[in-house]
Amino acid sequence: MVPGVEAWQAGLRAGAVFGRYELVREVGRGGSGVVWEARDLELGRPVAFKALRVAGEGARERRLVAEAEVAARLSHPNIVTVLDVGRSDHGPFLVLEYLTGAPLADRLRAGRLPLREALRIATEIAQGLAHAHAHGVVHRDLSPHNVHICEDGQVKIVDLGMAQAFGRRKVEGGTPESMAPEQLDGAPEDERTDVFALGALLFRMVAGVSPFGAGGARVASGIEVPEAPALARLVEATLERAPTARPRDAGEVLRELQEIAAALPPLTGDGPSLARIRAPARRRVTLAAA
Fold first, then answer.
1. pLDDT tens digits, residue range 101-136?
2. Using an 8 Å Cβ cutoff, are 265 and 215 in contact?
3. Which residues does residue 88 pair with via DSSP β-bridges, in sequence order?
């Protein structure tokens, strides 16, 4: 049992009230905390209540402060909004805007996405990341679970608990299949760490599979998209092992994504287009990508 979790488990129940927030139902959990739908008793609106559960009292406090500080610096339609931060007898918590819809991870379980949809989602992620990078913040844990697709289609980047504001001590961790080589090696990180993770996400959205296997081993050397050859070049550039070979930041990726989307030929009929994955041994596997 992680220290501090038992106390939260005793308090996390429907009807429990923390300050002005009344818990309604649990909606998700992960390594950094448990998220409940809650009701703001003063404003009468639904919110997301995140009870932090990082090991060690000092570590929990640092995680809370780090996430609150980062959130306070960022205000963008493609980044989840943190509304409040506080403490209870059970531990620290964050209050965020309540999101409908589901994580991108749920969409990807069904396989690849249509090309235009993948480009739209990637563009919105890049918009949020570009805003973060412009304010000196690197997310450091961009994964399908940390990208939320709202019911109206809007894309939100969530879970800033792993984010590193420049000048702040970074928190160790991450999602292995989305981690850049410098993260796995414990080397210095910057915006290009997020660029790598965005490239891995885009690859997976278009191809339906991850370019990496267990322990970050590369299982595909690249991808070809006949309708958008520039997309293949961009994805490969984002996944370069050397950070200096990648686009400098999300703003640079965003500009290229917008140009690729604008040049995409009109779709004809309902038939799928073809995306081809290049395996490391140069054996090609052909996949249908709508």
1. 999 999 999 888 989 999 999 999 999 999 999 998
2. no
3. 91
Least confident of 91-105, 171-185, 205-219, 271-285: 271-285
Q: Token pair for residue 149?
A: 């697709």
Task: Work out the mean pLDDT of the chain and round it to a whole number.
Answer: 82
Q: Which of 40, 141, 159, 194 is catalytic?
A: 141
What is each CA distance from 231 to 40, 84, 148, in whole angstroms? 44, 39, 23
Residue found under tokens 């559960």:
53
The span from the CA of 144 to the CA of 110, in Å, is 13
Query: What is the rounded distance in angstroms from the CA atom of residue 86 to the CA atom of residue 64?
Result: 9
Active site residue 159: no
Q: Answer for the pair 132, 138: CB distance below 8 angstroms, yes or no.
A: yes
Helix (H) or strand (E) holding 234: helix 229-238
Beta strands across the sheet bearing 273-278:
222-224, 273-278, 284-289
Residue 211 near residue 241 (C-beta atoms within 8 A): no
Task: Give the sheet arrangement for strand 102-103, strand by strand.
Answer: 102-103, 147-149, 155-157
Q: Is the pLDDT of residue 270 over 60?
A: no
**Which pair of tokens denotes residue 289?**
């990508």
CA dihedral 22, 24, 25, 31 (to 10 degrees): -20
Q: Pseudo-torsion of CA 177, 8, 84, 101, nearest 10°?
A: 50
Residue 261 identity: A
